[in-house]
Design a protein that fits this description.
This protein has about 200 residues and is α+β, with helices and mostly antiparallel strands. The protein has helices spanning about 5-15, 30-40, 150-165; strands at about 1-5, 20, 25-30, 45-65, 65-85, 85-90, 95-100, 110-115, 125, 130, 135-140, 145-150, 170-180, 185-190. The strands form 3 sheets. Strands 1, 4, 5, 6, 8, 9 and 12 form a 7-stranded antiparallel sheet that branches. A 5-stranded antiparallel sheet has the order 2-3-7-11-10. A hairpin with a 5-residue loop joins strand 13 (about 170-180) and strand 14 (about 185-190). Helix 1 crosses helix 2 (about 30-40). The protein is flat, with a radius of gyration of 23 Å. The protein starts with a strand and ends in a 13-residue tail after the last strand.
């Protein structure tokens, strides 16, 4: 859904109202703080696009009285706010966005949770609730990749990623060195012993 920046700016600055946008994929409600943050970061004479895309469904095989069947256990979504002049806006500056998405019938009787999926594919639970009408509502302070999934599958995925992180072994080597000004120093080299496929932002020693 694309709307003029001026429209969101007027609502955010002249009222205390939230902005609710409905698409086939999701209903998105920006509280007044989030709407103001988006308007502030966008070009005044441009447009703002609210993008909600269903990107994937994951299924598992399940034994039934009549044989095996497939059951949906996860639904993945990509959410973005894009300014026509300045690209993606990811910072809501303390604002909150409430997102409501439909879930497949397979999941209606299950305990459900929502997770935020970071750049490394790690799952992080976010606040959410299953609704009686077959939808799921969650709240977030930023847009990115999300999945609504059964609690069982979420716990399994989070346990696996935790075990993977805890299995990482590092080797630290040190050697006497000198700085460019000739002062004594110690050079530290860190290398990963186990290949877990995890990318590190850095190390704290």
């Amino acid at each position: 859904v694309t709307i003029p920046t001026a429209t969101i700016e007027t609502i955010a600055t002249e009222t205390d109202a939230a902005v609710t946008i409905k698409t086939d994929v999701a209903e998105i409600k920006l509280d007044n703080t989030a709407a103001a943050a988006i308007a502030e970061q966008a070009a005044e004479d441009g447009t703002i696009s609210i993008v909600a895309v269903k990107t994937d469904e994951k299924v598992v095989e399940e034994e039934t009285a009549t044989g095996e069947t497939e059951k949906v256990t996860e639904v993945h979504f990509e959410l973005k706010v894009v300014c026509s002049e300045r690209g993606v806006i990811g910072d809501f500056q303390g604002g909150t966005v409430t997102v409501t998405v439909p879930v497949p019938k397979d999941m209606h009787t299950e305990e459900l949770v929502c997770v935020y999926i970071d750049a490394q594919g790690h799952y992080h639970k976010v606040t959410g609730v299953k609704n009686a009408n077959g939808t799921f509502t969650f709240t977030t302070d930023h847009f990115s990749s999300y999945a609504v999934m059964t609690a069982e599958e979420a716990e399994k995925a989070i346990a696996e990623q935790k075990a993977k992180v805890e299995s990482v072994k590092l080797k630290l080597r040190s050697a006497n060195s000198k700085t460019s000004k000739g002062k004594k120093a110690i050079k530290l080299t860190v290398s990963e012993v186990t290949d877990t496929g995890i990318d590190f932002d850095g190390y704290v020693i």
